[in-house]
Amino acid sequence: LHLVALNLPFSGDMRADFQCFQQAQLAGLTSTYRAFLSSHLQDLATVVRKTDRYHLPIVNLKGEILFNNWESVFSGNGGQFNIHVPIYSFDGRNVMTDPSWPQKVIWHGSTANGIRLVSNYCEAWHTADMGAMGQASPLKTGKLLDQKVYSCSNQFIVLCIENSFVS
């Protein structure tokens, strides 16, 4: 399953699932992509289909392994990954080095186990209000689910996960 970033950073007011869908289509990817975010409807840990959570590796756009499987992202270590394996955007840029993302932080709105944090997910990703808060993770920590709180007015990286494997 591919983990890919949106082509631009977003504040807490985003239509992330739609953006993931649209940018994947424009990039010629045929499977379904969902935002790597907890929402008011779903915890991040359950975004990937149950049948695909254990046996498929999580890879970047070029097929390099980030995680052994979806479940390993939520094993309690904060989604620890190898920071030497780049995360690419749908248009092929490395979000860790490209200046289009000046802040190397990803939104997630979740606990380290992928459960939604209702108090810290920018009102279900519908506000960029400076006073509202969102849970996010600085990539320099080497974790996708580090537990830091930021104002929803920040423009951070938004990741998308291929949520079902199509052979």
UniProtKB/TrEMBL annotation:
Pfam families: Endostatin (PF06482). InterPro entries: C-type_lectin-like/link_sf, Collagenase_NC10/endostatin, CTDL_fold. Residues 1-166 form the Collagenase NC10/endostatin domain. It comes from the Eukaryota. This is COFA1 protein.
